[in-house]
Amino acid sequence: MESPASARVLLLPGWQNSGPAHWQSRWEVLYGDVRVEQHDWMHPLRGDWVMRLEEVVQAQSEAVVLVAHSLGCLLVAAWAAQTRLAHRVRGALLVAPGDPQQPELAAVLHSWTPLVLPHLPFPSRLLGSHNDPYCSLARAQSFADALGAQWMDCGAMGHINADSGLGDWPQGRALLAEFLNTQP
Question: What's the pTM value of the predicted model, to 2 decimals?
Answer without folding.
Answer: 0.95
